[in-house]
Design goal:
The chain has 10 helices and 12 strands. By secondary structure, the protein is α/β, with parallel strands linked by helices. The strands form 2 sheets. It has a 7-stranded mixed sheet with strand order 3-2-1-4-9-6-10, with helices on both faces. The protein has a 5-stranded mixed sheet with strand order 5-11-7-8-12. Helix 1 crosses helix 7, helix 4 runs parallel beside helix 5 and helix 4 packs antiparallel against helix 10. The longest helix is centred in the N-terminal third of the chain and has 24 residues. The chain is globular, with a radius of gyration of 19 Å.
Length: 310
């Protein structure tokens, strides 16, 4: 693609971003006092159930989750993919709760604290093993209680190998504001962004495929009325549209989902051909997701060189 076309694409998408930013800003004073935004991420949490891979005991599950080679890959994806997109949000007024097990080995806990220390939105939340959804619900409810549960909330969930666009929180706020009349009398209301990318990360860089995917958790959020006891984790993402009204915004690329050998939903997660980034994609990854391919290469090279290092 020519430089002229890249510049035109850049200006066109940014014009769309500016339009929604203006709408969000116009209602920001009212919006900021009405809605909490809380994201949830489970980082190798040893839940009871909730995994495609089954284990006979909690100890067996923890041994699998905390294996050095696996943890090296989880940290690499978390550092290279998830955290940059969280830290770069254009609207910084949100919480990102990282749910961990109270059995997480100390070296991993120290490393997690270190890599999230400069991201004020991140809150580590530790629990003993519980049913997967109940643990996640507990973490969200506890964060809302800390913030003050008297406000409407916007909730989203990410795996520790997902990313969202840098305007994800801002767009969710704007869409919640603009859909108030539509949501009148509705307790829970879903938002879906179906456009994104699936990627494979390695010391060699990024392989990617652009796609439109329905009801992927990494492209969804939920607006929930103040005082309601439901959370986004009460609704299986692939069936959310069965029980609540939803708004679909198909235009911007809003998520990245990683494909790798440790995907828990691996047999159900099928992609097309993943190809090296084009110059256009490399540019969009930087300004849409705050991701840098050179940094990704360095992180995954270090993980490959020292797979057992915490």
């Amino acid at each position: 693609m020519s430089t002229h076309r890249l510049d035109l694409l850049d200006r066109t998408v940014r014009m769309g971003h500016d339009a929604i930013e203006t709408k969000a800003t116009q209602g920001r004073t009212r919006d900021m006092t009405q809605r909490h935004v809380v994201g949830l991420c489970r980082f190798s949490y040893p839940a009871v159930g909730g995994f495609q891979r089954m284990h006979d005991s909690t100890e067996e599950r923890e041994a699998y989750l905390y294996a050095p080679t696996r943890m090296a890959q989880r940290f690499a994806h978390f550092e290279a993919l998830t955290l940059p997109s969280v830290a770069a949000q254009s609207d910084p007024d949100f919480s990102f709760v990282v749910l961990i097990g109270d059995s997480l080995p100390a070296p991993y806990l120290d490393r997690l604290r270190d890599i999230t220390a400069d991201i004020p939105q991140v809150r580590l939340f530790s629990l003993p093993p519980r049913r997967a959804r109940r643990a996640a619900q507990h973490a969200i409810v506890a964060e809302l209680a800390r913030l003050g549960a008297d406000r409407e909330s916007i909730q989203f969930r990410l795996d520790d190998d997902d990313a969202v666009a840098v305007d994800f929180v801002e767009r969710c706020r704007a869409l919640a504001d603009r859909s108030e009349a539509l949501r009148d009398g509705v307790r829970c209301f879903g938002i879906e962004f179906p456009r994104g990318l699936t990627v494979s990360l390695s010391p060699g860089g990024v392989l990617a495929e652009e796609l439109t995917a329905s009801f992927w958790a990494c492209g969804m959020a939920m607006v929930i009325r103040a005082g309601d006891d439901k959370t986004i984790m009460n609704f299986p993402h692939h069936k959310m549209h069965h029980t609540v009204p939803m708004l679909v915004e198909p235009r911007p690329e809003m998520f990245i989902r990683a494909k790798h050998d440790d995907n828990d939903s691996g047999k159900h997660y099928r992609t097309g051909e993943l190809r090296p980034l084009t110059d256009d994609q490399r540019k969009r990854l930087k300004w849409r997701f705050a991701l840098d391919e050179d940094r990704i290469r360095r992180i995954f090279s270090a993980a490959a060189a020292s797979p057992g290092k915490a």
